[in-house]
Amino acid sequence: MFRRFFxxxxxxxxxxxEQEILALAISSEEDDARIYAAYADGLRDQFPQSAKxxxxxxxxxxxxxxxxxxxxxxxxxxTIPLIRREHVxxxxxxxxxxxxxxxxxxxxxxxxxxxxxxxxxxxxxxxKRASDAGTRKLLGDLAVAEKGHESLAQRLGTKHxxxxxxxxxxxxxxxxxxxxxxxPGLAGLMDGSVSTLAPIFAAAFATQDTWQTxxxxxxxxxxxxxxxxxxxxxxxxxxxxxRGSPIKRGIASGVMTAVGxxxxxxxxxxPQFWTATSVAAxxxxxxxxxxxxxxxxxxxTPFLRAAFQVVxxxxxxxxxxxxxxxx
Length: 327
Description:
Blueprint: H1 2-6, H2 18-43, H3 48-76, H4 105-129, H5 133-147, H6 149-160, H7 163-195, H8 197-207, H9 210-235, H10 246-263, H11 273-298, H12 303-326
C-alpha cells in the first residue's frame, strides 16, 4: 500500500553486498560513459575539439567498467546483479541534461566535473565496505582515477582544445545564442512594444475607459505574440541559416512580443484614467530604453544610435495613437 503512494522502495547503501556494490559501480560507469558519448555527439557539429575531450572521457569510463567486470567475474562469476542508481536510497542521480540541444560548453564541463566528484565519493565509501583485498584496491584505484579526472580533463583540454580554439568555440556558442534567442526575442519585443502603442493609447484617449483600454491592449498583445511566434517559426527552419530550432525562435519571438505589449497594457487595470496613463507612459519609456540596451549589448549597435532610433520611432507611434484617439 505504501509503495502505491510513495513509489517503489529503495535499498540503503549500507545494506548492499560486495557483489551488489560492484554491480552498482559497473552500471554507473556504463551510464557515465554513455553520457560523455552523448555530450561528445551533441557538441561535435559546432565544437569538434571539445567533443574529442568527451570522447576520451567516455573511453576512460569504459575502461573502468571493464576492470570492474573483470573483478566481478573473478570473484562472483558471470552473472551481474541488476542494480542501478535509482535502486539505492541517497545515491546521486544524473539529470538528463545531455538530451537537451544545443549543449552549452560551460554547462557541460561543469556537469562533467560534478559527475567525477560524485563518482569519487562513491568509490571512497564503496572501498570502505570491501573486505576482499583485490576489490578494495580496485575501488581505491578508481577513486583516485575519478579524483584525477579534473586534471585529466585539463590535459585533454590542452591536447584537444588549446586556448585559441576554446575562445573560438565560446564565440561560436555566443553567436548561436544570439541567433536563436536574442534576435527573435528582440524583434518580438520591439514589435510588441512599438506596434501596440498606437491602438492602446488611441483606445485610451478615445474611450477614457481603463477597462476597455486594457482589453484592447490584451487582445493586441496576445494576438501579436501568436502571429510573430508562428511567423518566426514558419519562415526559416534554421538548417541553412544556422539560426537554430524554429520552435525555440518562435517561442522567444512570441513571448517577447506579448510581453512588450502587455507592459503598457497592464497599467490600465488601474481604475483612474490619468494615473493608469501616466504609469503606462513610464513603462513605455523603460521598454524603449531596454530595447536600446539589448541592441547595444548583443547586437553591438552604438547605444546612442540605438536609443535615437528606438525612442524616436516609439515617440512617433505614441503620438499617432494619442492624436487618433483625440480625433
